[in-house]
Design a protein that fits this description.
It is a single chain. The chain is built from 27 helices and 17 strands. With 635 residues, the protein is of the alpha+beta class. It is globular. The mean pLDDT is 92.
Length: 635
């Protein structure tokens, strides 16, 4: 695992010290080694977190004739079989690492090589004789890659701070990205919150040659394969795939562990890891002792079941929460408006003291329909049979329900669901997992615009059924919220995270399943739950899903209240020239006086303001900037 960065300078010279500063800014991603490559047209840099071939895998790596050079962030789990195939084609190797295999694969197979890599990656390859730079990002977006174009040049990096190292890059707020952020609490690709800096889409490559830049998908069209003949056949196939994926992702030359929540996904990963590993596994968890959403009893039960060496951290108001939030703003580059970043910060910090690689259950919810929003989509169809006037009246009545300090309380879910039934299905799906509605955003944001989010929603396939929502969430929510959060927080602590559920073979398998194998009546992740019968404690199979975040409603009324009021002060809000202070004040008052639970809304604003201040983001918007056309979303 590493960090990468680079700058072309064919026409426009690179200011002195930029590459060094860019590399230094991502040392946390790779503290074991850093180096660079420079020629007349391109400068590349890399930092390395040594996982495999510790002695021989330093970057950059060159071809034998030194015509081609690669810097790379990630892990390719099928590199051994690719290496054997390449050796049969005449390739020779000087290391035992996957980086050299990727370079040789590219030299033999060209751009088609990227679709053959099974794993997580962000890659940059420069070929001197062709004067061609190629960037590529993995299919699911597990590893990040940002770029910025200016005067025929392209600047890129694993994090925005790499690009910020160039003083010629402006730091203006991106209005379309901010419009999406306020609705979703994350920024969907290709947007970022900095105008002009965009994300390379998952499964895409970028080519730069002769000061011309283009992007395209490198993925072949997915083959149409039949679904498993029965639920038992599906369980058998998934069992085989999980065995293979977890076994491959256990390969490491440094200590490895498993993040354990006591839920179905992480416990399933632990089951297969324990079956494949000859050694006792180390597991790590965050607990919330004394809270209704504490998962300690499930964690202890699963840890005991598999005999793991377990370590946990109890997150409470005694922790240095305000300091962690400030640090998250630095390492995140963009606001991490998913409140799960806070417990993840303490989990990663604890974990990194003992291991360098961790396996997690990320991705299972988006593949097998684990979220409440998928049930809500179905319940909405039932609710729509009742007149809109009745649903509005029920929503009005729900406002009189007592406000709870629980993370996602009953009254919060009822209000969000009823509000969603008054929207079209795409907007409702986003709203149930988001924050501000279009109407609320109009009152909050001076540049409110429904266009950017409407552009994102164009990628929701028309029709009916569950799969289109899963595809949409895999493309946006998974990549731009869940995986983004995990990458930034884990790499801030020089920790590599591997998600076995996002193995290409499992992703393709899940796409072939009928809806009923995923959401079976009210039972989520049905095929996985059925597979894990007799493999996991019965309590884990029966328990409801509990989200991984903090009791933000409660903590904003208590330990985090000073930080909230100091950050969202009248002076800060008005000087940003982005938001209407009277509406922000109303949000604060309604929440603090317990008239409503608005913790998630306020969290998104809090981390946004901390981020803008930390990175000196320009927020003054002129008429010309406000009127700029939107960049295209999707591919």
């Amino acid at each position: 695992m590493c960090g990468i960065t680079g700058f072309t300078h064919l026409r426009k010279p690179l200011p002195p010290g930029v590459l060094t500063n860019a590399v230094d800014s991502i040392t946390h991603r790779g503290p074991n080694q850093k180096a660079r490559f420079e020629c007349e047209a391109v400068s590349l840099g890399a930092t390395r977190l040594a996982i495999l071939d510790i002695a021989g895998g330093d970057q950059p790596i060159y071809s034998a004739d030194r015509d081609a050079v690669i810097v790379y962030n990630g892990e390719v789990f099928n590199f051994v079989e690719l290496r054997q195939e390449l050796e049969h084609e005449g390739a020779t190797f000087h290391t035992h690492c996957d980086t050299e295999v990727i370079l040789q694969a590219y030299l033999h197979w060209g751009d088609a090589a990227f679709a053959r890599l099974r794993g997580m990656f962000a890659i940059a390859i420069w070929v001197q004789s062709q004067q061609r730079l190629v960037l590529a990002r993995d299919r699911m977006g597990i590893k990040p890659l940002y770029y910025f174009q200016q005067d025929g040049e392209v600047y890129f990096g694993s994090e925005l701070k790499c690009i910020f190292a160039n003083p010629n890059v402006p730091r203006r707020i991106c209005l379309p990205g901010l419009n999406c952020y306020l609705s979703l609490n994350y920024v969907p690709a290709p947007y970022t919150l900095v105008e002009g800096i965009v994300k390379l889409l998952p499964g895409h490559l970028l080519e730069w040659k002769n000061a011309e830049c283009s992007t395209r998908s490198y993925l072949p069209q997915r083959a149409s394969l039949p679904a498993p003949a029965s639920i038992d056949a599906a369980c058998e196939e998934l069992d085989d795939l999980l065995q293979k994926s977890v076994a491959e992702e256990l390969v490491s030359d440094v200590p490895l562990g498993v993040w354990l929540s006591g839920g179905l996904d992480s416990s399933s990963v632990l089951h297969y890891a324990a079956s494949a590993s000859p050694n006792q596994l180390h597991t790590f968890s965050v607990t919330f002792q004394g809270r209704s959403f504490d998962e300690s009893k499930y964690i202890r039960e699963v840890s005991h079941h598999f005999g793991t060496n377990h370590t946990d951290f109890d997150l409470n108001t005694d922790a240095e929460l305000a300091d962690a939030i400030q640090q998250i703003a630095y390492y995140s580059d963009e606001p991490s408006a998913d409140a799960g970043a806070v417990p993840l910060w303490f989990l990663a910090k604890m974990t990194a003291q003992d291991v360098t690689v961790i396996l997690t259950g990320e991705g299972a919810d988006e593949l097998f329909a684990g979220y409440l929003t998928y049930k809500a989509n179905r319940y909405r169809d039932i609710a729509k049979k009742f007149p809109a006037a009745l649903r509005k009246a029920m929503l009005g009545a729900a406002n009189f329900l007592p406000v709870s300090d629980d993370k996602i309380s009953f009254e919060y879910k009822v209000k969000r669901f009823l509000q969603g039934t008054l929207m079209d299905e795409g907007a409702a799906h986003l709203y149930w997992n988001g924050t501000f509605s279009d109407e609320e955003k109009e009152q909050l944001f001076r540049y409110a615009d429904s266009g950017p989010l409407a552009g994102v929603l164009k990628d929701l396939r028309p029709g009916r059924g569950l799969e289109r929502f899963l595809e949409f969430d895999q493309r946006y929510y998974l990549a731009d919220d869940i995986l983004y959060k995990v990458d930034r927080i884990s790499m801030a602590h020089s920790l590599e995270v591997r998600p076995p559920f996002l193995d290409d073979r499992i992703v393709d398998f899940a796409a072939r399943l009928p809806d009923d194998y995923k959401l079976h009546g009210s039972q989520s992740k049905y095929v996985l739950r059925r597979l894990m019968q007799n493999k996991l404690p019965e309590s884990v199979l029966r328990r409801p899903k509990i989200g991984f975040d903090i009791p933000i409603h409660d903590w904003f009324r208590g330990v985090l209240r000073p930080l909230l009021l100091d950050t969202l002060s009248e002076d800060a809000v008005t000087s940003s020239k982005l938001f209407h202070w009277p509406y922000v004040r109303q949000l604060l008052d309604d929440h603090l006086q317990r008239r409503a639970n608005l913790g998630y809304h306020l969290w998104g604003l809090l981390v946004l303001f901390i981020w803008m201040k930390r990175w000196n983001i320009e927020t003054a918007i002129g008429e010309s900037e406000a009127a700029k056309p939107l960049i295209a979303v999707g591919s």
